[in-house]
Amino acid sequence: MNGKLDKAIAVLAASGGNDLIQTLQSRGAFKLHDGVLTLRLPFYAPAWFNSLQAKTQVKLAALGITLHCTSQVATLQSNIANPIAGIKNVLVVASGKGGVGKSTVSVNLALALAAKGAKVGILDADIYGPSMPLMLGQSDARPESHDGKTMLPIKAHGVVANSIGFLVDKNDATVWRGPMASKALAQILRETQWGELDYLVVDMPPGTGDIQLTMAQQVPVTSALIVTTPQNVALADATKGINMFAKVNVPVVGLVENMSMHVCSQCGHEEAIFDQGGGVKLADAHNSECLAQLPLHRQYREDTDAGTPTVTKSVDSPLSQAYLELAEKVAIKLYVDCPLGVQTIPIVSVN
């Protein structure tokens, strides 16, 4: 039996990425019984699995094996042992500087993870300039409380979210010193009834100050995703962000090069307004990976301004597909890079 399983694993490794298949095998994700090889996939990646199945179907059939998949998101180890009830993994999206489209990346990535099948929440950690209420089309929403102590998150587009922007008037300025802002963030995070979430995506403010330290020291962060644009001024600040996470023992899952290429909405002409390849070079310099190069396109801006982020619209459009592909890459790389935690949740079949 083991010999047949080993042959099947070899077939999969040749087509689905050797490192990933080996990691799945070492963590007991495969089970062969009566000619059915079940892959207990610890993340949602239907496109990856469908491609793997298509590439290996003939060779597995020659071994008398069919491939089946069930999915549950694994709980991965975080930088500190201070769990948040119901939340398996916390992914912070950071940039080091403002103006690189980090909030747009955060909301579309969160929605893409949810579109793949995961249960996802969004925490808007930008106390001074919250964007999520507008981007989710919930500017006038206010969290409810059933016990006077905790609050229910706002529901929008299949995810749950909370933000200081839901708690103060949208036209008010949050004039708080750092410690007060950090305390407010901690309260929003800990006093929200998030429910059962596979991922909490945190839209971080720019910089490397109090909010970032609060997240690193008080929140069990699984990993960080760095967003940059290709030009040198953004890369310099993104480098500081990477170094900050290294100092607080938060792994970086990878980089996103946003506004990589401007695409003319009229003729389709592409132009590298902010230079080319900076995100790739930065990732290489830090032994990381550039997981996506996203275009500078007016549709992204129009959609978030309207409260209907691009991923909530046509999933077949290239602009949506870019985020759906990023979501699977992030989910897979988180699993490969991070050791397993201890929580488990019942498996749900996805095909």
Strands ordered across the widest β-sheet: 6-7-5-8-4-9-10-13
Structural domains: how many:
2
| CATH fold-level assignment of the largest domain | Rossmann fold
Structural class category: alpha/beta
Subunit structure: Homodimer.
Keywords: ATP-binding, Hydrolase, Iron, Iron-sulfur, Metal-binding, Nucleotide-binding
InterPro entries: Mrp-like_CS, Mrp/NBP35_ATP-bd, NUBPL-like, P-loop_NTPase, YlxH/NBP35
Binding site for ATP: 96-103
How is this structure best described in words?
- This protein has helices spanning 2-16, 18-26, 46-62, 102-116, 132-135, 178-190, 210-218, 232-247, 278-285, 298-305, 318-337, and strands at residues 30-33, 36-41, 66-71, 87-94, 120-124, 154-156, 159-163, 197-203, 223-228, 252-257, 262-263, 270-271, 290-293, 348-349.
- The strands form 3 sheets. An 8-stranded mixed sheet has the order 6-7-5-8-4-9-10-13, with helices on both faces.
- It folds into 2 domains: 2-71, no CATH class; 87-337, P-loop containing nucleotide triphosphate hydrolases (Rossmann fold, 3-Layer(aba) Sandwich).
- The protein is an alpha/beta fold.
- A hairpin with a 2-residue loop joins β1 (30-33) and β2 (36-41).
- Helix content is 38%, strand content 19%.
- Binds and transfers iron-sulfur (Fe-S) clusters to target apoproteins. Can hydrolyze ATP.
- Keywords: ATP-binding, Hydrolase, Iron, Iron-sulfur, Metal-binding, Nucleotide-binding.
- InterPro entries: Mrp-like_CS, Mrp/NBP35_ATP-bd, NUBPL-like, P-loop_NTPase, YlxH/NBP35.
- It comes from Motilimonas cestriensis.
